[in-house]
Design brief:
288 residues; alpha+beta; Alpha-Beta Plaits; 10 helices
Length: 288
Amino acid sequence: MTAGGDFIPNDPNLEAEPSYPVVFGIALTPTILGILLAVGGIALAAYLFLSLVQPALEKYNDLRQKVQDKEAQVQQAAVIAKQIADANANLEAAKKQRTEVLNLFSNESTLNTLLLDLNRQVETRNAGVAKLEQDRLAACPAWVRNNVEELRKGGVEVARRAALKDFTPDAKASGVITDSAYGSLVNNKLKRQVATVNLEGNVNQTQAIFRNIERLQPFLVFKDVKIVVGDGTQAATSVNRLFEVRGNTVQFLTNCQPEPKLTTTFRLEALSPLTPQETVKVAPAPAK
């Protein structure tokens, strides 16, 4: 048999296995190399993740948390700023309300003119009394018209005139309020000027005087009001009537009778806030 070409039967090099590098007794075959490369790739990826990606993620998360914290602080600052603005607005409203309330109370100028104001209110009620008296006297007998002054001295007035009979300040009861008479919150914040007032007039005059006193600027309080007719005795009330003797009879003068007199006494308290100097005096001493 002859062989042709390059094929040589029974060539020892043809049947021999290829040789691979050996490391630590392990032949580095393609399969082994593939496995080693895969493991190396995984290890490299893990290394890159731990050394580069994970620190970057941690830094990103840290920065994101800081941003969220700053945003929360900004929102909280806005809420606090609004609360401060609301508090300031409420404070200004309270100051305005306090000023308006204090303006209702008396002050030094109104207290100094209180007596004059009261007397003016009383005298105002006498406007037109002279004309009214003249009209009423026209229906009276001549002896009544001729003795008007004498009758008036005896308390008989066909047209009653109002009069402020007495205004007596009470220095002992006046001063800083400390007795909770107007509530404990008022103590050491307000003061009062107290006076006893006595006035005379008819029913309509007395009502009008009280209404006009309430309209005065000072904050006034009426206490212990007492109203009596005439001098407060039955005898005095019956005396102030006019009769006329006609023959053997006593005739009651129906159209010529004096107006009944009302005598009114009351305690008047004018309230006013303390001055800064007075406030300092009544302020409690600081604790040691």
